[in-house]
Design goal:
Layout lengths: L1 H28 L13 H10 L6 H13 L14 H36 L4 H15 L2 H15 L12 H30 L2 H8 L4 H12 L1 H16 L3 H6 L5 H10 L3 H29 L1 H5 L1
Amino acid sequence: MLGFLLKRFFHGVIVLWIVASLTFLLLRLAPGGPFDRERKLPPEVIANIEAKYHLDEPLLAQYLRYLSGIARGDLGPSYKYVDRSVGEVIAETLPTSATLGLLALLFALALAFPAALFAAYYRDSWIDRACMFVATLGISVPHFVLGALLIWMVALQLGWLQVGRWDQWESVILPTITLGAAPAAYLATLLRSTLLETFGEDFVRTARAKGLKESAVVLHHALRHSLIPVLTVMGPLTAALLTGSFVVEYVFAIPGMGRFFITSVTDRDYPLIMGVTLVYTALLVLANMLIDILYGAVDPRIRAQ
């Protein structure tokens, strides 16, 4: 296990280096500059700004300076938010996005597993059709449409919950539902199709022939065997949810990292773009590493390899 973790850690470092290098290069090759405005600044002002942020140095020198900063944990200063570093912006906004993402993930799992189990067990019944109809609806409806509908119905018409705040538990419910609805629908559809295949396997029929309780057959044998495809998509899904969704954060006025990422693109804030991209990549690498460990826990045959 230690050798496996070290190997995956080494691979993760390589992935981070490749992503950091490609992001740096693509941003430098993009037309325009980070301080281009509709109203052009005087050349001497531009020169002073570029000297402050070392943009007047050769490209290779900028690249080595950037990698050196990453190695020290310094992601550089933000071009847009003066006197604030990228690390400070991320440290301030990531916990909010991570909290929202974790709640949305738990909501998705809590909704997807029972729906998939009931839909697969009662195949072609009204329960199956109802669950798959709701799942298809959840996949089809965009975040901003669902969020707007929830705000209009639950907050404005019924007056049950508050929106536009992030300081009490009532303000967390609607964003969590909005962000977790599509993942819940997707996971339910995926798990149902896998369970339908598993129910037809010989080991499931053998377990029933032995006289095992139906709950043990479904939960211990069929469900456990069907988790591998679900775990495969859980890595990128978890990373995406933890880093936040700009649409959901914008609709509900949540001060998360997703909103800063989009504004950094429009403002051409190169260090913030690269910093957020690296954070997302690091979370993706960690999530995939955790999923690989869970593979062995779910299926001993994978652990034996």
